[in-house]
Design goal:
GO terms for molecular function: D-serine ammonia-lyase activity. It comes from Acinetobacter courvalinii. InterPro entries: Ala_racemase_N, D-amino_acid_metab_enzyme, PLP-binding_barrel. This is Alanine racemase N-terminal domain-containing protein. This protein has about 375 residues and is of the alpha/beta class. The chain has two domains: about 1-20 and about 275-385, Beta Barrel (Lyase, Ornithine Decarboxylase, Chain A, domain 1), CATH 2.40.37; about 25-260, TIM Barrel (Alpha-Beta Barrel). The chain has ten helices and 16 strands. It has helices spanning about 1-15, 25-40, 60-70, 80-90, 100-110, 125-140, 160-175, 200-220, 240-245, 360-365; strands spanning about 20-25, 50, 75, 95, 120-125, 145-150, 180-185, 230-235, 250-255, 275-285, 305-310, 315-320, 340-345, 355-360, 370-375, 380-385. Strands 1, 10, 11, 12, 13, 14, 15 and 16 form an eight-stranded mixed beta sheet that branches. An eight-stranded parallel beta barrel has the order 2-3-4-5-6-7-8-9, surrounded by four helices. Strand 3, helix 4 (about 80-90) and strand 4 form a beta-alpha-beta unit. The longest helix has 22 residues, at about 200-220. Bound molecules: pyridoxal-5'-phosphate. Pyridoxal-5'-phosphate binds near residues 52, 55 and 257.
Length: about 375
Amino acid sequence: MLDHYFKQLNLDLKKQGIATPQLIVDEAALKQNIQHVQIRLAHATHLKARLVVKSLASLDLLKLLSAQINTQRFMVFHQPHIISILENFAEADILLGKPMPAQAVRHFFEQHAAWSDANIQWLVDTQQRVQQYLEIAQTYSRCLKLNIEIDVGLHRGGVQSTQQLIEILKLIERNPQYLKLSGLMGYDAHVTKIPAIIKKPELAYHGSQQTYAHYQQLIQKQFPTLWNEALCFNGGGSPTFSLHTTASVCNDLSFGSMLLKPSDFDSDFLQALQPALWIAAPVLKVLPFTQLPSMSLLDKLPHKCKALFIYGGYWLADYVYPDQCHTHALYGRSSNQELVNVPKNCDIQVDDFVFLRPTQSEAIIPQFSELKLYRTHAFETWQTFSE
Ligand SMILES: Cc1ncc(COP(=O)(O)O)c(C=O)c1O
């Protein structure tokens, strides 16, 4: 099945005269993944979808997903992406996925005064950062929406105790002219990453949800002036998408990578989704076997593999086609012209393509200036974020 797919893709790429490495999005697989998300979300009416921009970093892709999943909520991780999203989505609701350095926030208000009233939830993790953001709000006479990062078990920073949360909330409560609480963000990627022998994912999820609920109740009971029904309680990502859409104390769910399903997202929880992202790299040279520099004695030995040199290489990706293609442990890796071994009887020529499956989308997409949306025999070109 995959054999037939890559043979066809190889022919289609060559027919189009494409001769450089390409990042390919398979339209059929993407559609299927979108459908899966639509169905799960239709059953989880308490959750609003939020697209993770860094994992889907192409405006055309985001526009398609925004229309199909019916959301203009975005989680943004990179300052320049904020403006791209604001310029392209009239109803954009942005939640920062990591706390921006205060200086980056200052630049935003300095350089983009026109967007100073945009719907942005700035993520804060410590009282010190809230204090810095307060000073920015005072300088620019703005009221900043603050979403508080809470540690629900991932231990990547954020609020780790009731005391820390109370201190932040007090600071916000004392400065209503400049600061407004907009919600909480608790990322729970650890849930499916802890070895099951130590903790079962369902149990880890339950624990993270309990922590989340504890902080929600604290706001409601001790800070009623900050509490309102519109607060954004963000959770997720892709690894816990199916758990959240089954039951969640959150009302806002971020996800991105699962729609393209790079191999880091091969998990029992995402079994229904299809890999939709591939790298295609042209073959530049086909040699009968691998010659290791300064080891010509080995050349006389029988060889099981041919040696290809390809256009590009060393991506965060695994070689998947032709069957059994792999890098050479001793020859080493190259980003410019990588050696790839294929079985001796493999029928591959110069100008054919080899194919790889990225392990993640967020690192790979920025390495390509465009994505090629592939439907059999045809390609559509999508731009990726340039920065
Ligand atoms: C805060 C936060 N939420 C959600 C996600 C999920 O993104 P994805 O679905 O692409 O894994 C991430 C990924 O790094 C994240 O840092």
